[in-house]
Amino acid sequence: MKTTFKEIEMLSFSSDLNNIGLVEKLIDEICGKYKIQEDFYGNILIAVTEAINNSIQHGNDSDQEKQVSLSVLENTNEIKFVVCDEGKGFAYDKLPDPTAPENIEKESGRGIFLMKALADDVEFEENGSKVILTFHLEK
User: Fold this and answer.
1) 57: left (phi over 0), alpha (psi -120 to 50) or beta
2) What is the pLDDT, as a whole number, of residue 108?
3) pLDDT band at 139 (very low <50, low <70, confident <90, very high)
4) Distance between CA 94 and CA 130 in Å, rounded?
5) Residue 117's beta-bridge partner residues?
6) What is the pTM of this model?
């Protein structure tokens, strides 16, 4: 049986890294509304802003004519952050392991690794141009 989610927020903006502040403000509001504890708040903030950053820089190639959208969905047990860009997607299942010795000192390539470590679930759709981060709400 598929779980039903209700959209509680939606935000759309141009591919400009300065717009990450809008996302941070939205996350603050949602975490306040759900009384999410500080450690869990940090996980959400880092994972979602990383997904937004990837959409802006890699998905949309920082093209300010292209949009990034963030939808926030909820049910009684979970909250989902859905990030979409207008890019072609990427081979999300063929990324190098950032913890491998040959990649340890690289300055990039850790975003998806971080998202997977911090979120309870990470899904990619639309060839990777849509990322769904799921967090279980503690009751």
Assistant:
1) alpha
2) 61
3) low
4) 16
5) none
6) 0.89
